[in-house]
Amino acid sequence: MITTLTRLAPHALSLLRVMAALLLMQHGTQKLLGFPDFLPGGRGAPAMFSLSWTAGVFELVGGLLLAIGLFTRPVAFVLSGVMAFAYFLVHAGREFYPINNGGELAALYCFVFFYFVFSGPGPWSVDRAMGRA
Questions:
Q1: How far is 40 from 17, CA to CA, in rounded Å?
Q2: What's the pTM value of the predicted model, to 2 decimals?
Q3: Are 121 and 10 in contact (CB under 8 A)?
Q4: What is the mean pLDDT of residues 3-12?
């Protein structure tokens, strides 16, 4: 049983990378494209080059690159920093505990992406197909 799980671990890594990236992309599509539109007040797209717009670009483009596993380590490093920045800029000032300040997702993304910097993309990736993993 343990050997089977160990053998499948790289594939689980790829699955974690793809799912984390797809979930992150939802934040970018919501900010930039209004999909899915459940933002309070149905506000439109943020002004170009605003902080919210910039975050949306990182989430959408970075999420897409991470989902396909292209430039995984540098993209994961940047996204980890973006999520840390989001946590401290948006959430940390509200309350100390992440569960109370709404920042638990940003903190989790930060550390998951930071893990990908060290682990790489896993076997299901463009990086691996190009021999760069």
A1: 29
A2: 0.91
A3: no
A4: 96
